[in-house]
Amino acid sequence: MKYKRKLKVLLAAPLPPPDHGGIGNWTRIVKERIGPRDDVELILIDTNVRYRSATNNSFPVRLIGGSLQALRDTFRVYIALRKKRPDVFHLTSTCGLATPKDNMMLRLARRFGVPSAIHYRMGRMPDLAARQCLEWKMILRTMRLATKVIALGPRTFNTASQALPPGHALLLPNMVEIDLIDEVLQKALLTSCKNSMELIFVGQVLPTKGLRELIQACSQLPKLSFKLTIVGPVSSDFKTELLALASANGKPTWLEMTGPVPHPIAMERMAQADVVVLPSYTEGMPNVILEAMAMSKPIVATPVGAIPSMLLFDTPDECGVSVPPQEVDSLREVLSNIILDVAPYREMAKKARRRAEIEYDVTVGCDRLVNLWRELASMPLVEQA
User: Fold this and answer.
1) Tell me: the pLDDT tens digits for 144-154?
2) Which is higher by pLDDT, 268 or 49?
3) Where are the alpha helices (DSSP H) in 34-175?
4) Which of 109, 131, 191, 236 could bridge across to 114 with cysteines, CB 3.0–4.6 Å?
5) pTM of the model
6) Per-position DSSP letters for 254-305, written without gaps between them
């Protein structure tokens, strides 16, 4: 379809590196898949954290360094709004300490008369709303400044919908590059050579990802033939702690920690593995789950964020295994069952692949996003709260 002119979109979102993280990967996909289109002019402001490592979550560092970066990013958005005059402003956010920055950016968009969307990339919103805490009140004020509020999963969407006027919130899931995944799978078939089942975790190696529980569960399976591979950036202190946990019942010959690797290499490692495990305490809509679905991998994950709706937990079409967060015994039992007989779980994995093709393929996701931007460009600004 031909348009008289390009739709000009200002996108404030983080780009890799680091290569592990759903937001950065989503931004990369948008840049590579929508950026070259002849109907959209994408103006991208990279808001990725550059003042600290991905595994350094010290509050003082985040507060001081984050405040300086927030001012810098807000100034860059101001300059882009003033000079580029975009049709739409799209802002990604994980809330927390970023909320004041989000508020400032959305106010700037209103000042320049630009319709805006804030895209929440986390799964904590329902819990924050239930507690009616200060962070929730700040988020609510910020959401009311945006023309649209985008949620990744049904729980966040329902929370935002209940707090905002009808039609103000919408659901927009992540997307996965199935065409590239298939190339990786084909390569993995030619290079795979192993004698035992391999479990894999891919992502930032943090306590909130459930890595302590995963190591503890695996350390209690010494008589079974398996390997656990952990791919992603990790601090030296947390790595030492995980290795100590793994050594509780003897030398952990079953464990490999690769550290950070480029995203294509991480995908190759996942393609060669047998089972993907993500025992997080909290999530938004993790890309690693989408990638595992596209690879037809059995998936073990906690029912947090958008994961239940992605894997259809507790339905006849369930395409992954649910384990409660922070429960070592439950995780150990599930992993033991899979290692002993993986066949039933591979049937789930086939369902996951079909679901990824229908709901989350990149061509579908990009069209949804561009259609949203065109709708936004034609909308009047909301009244300020």
Assistant:
1) 999 999 999 99
2) 268
3) 59-84, 99-111, 125-131, 134-143, 154-163
4) 109
5) 0.89
6) TEEEEE---HHHHHHHHHH-SEEEE--S--SS-HHHHHHHHTT--EEE-S-T
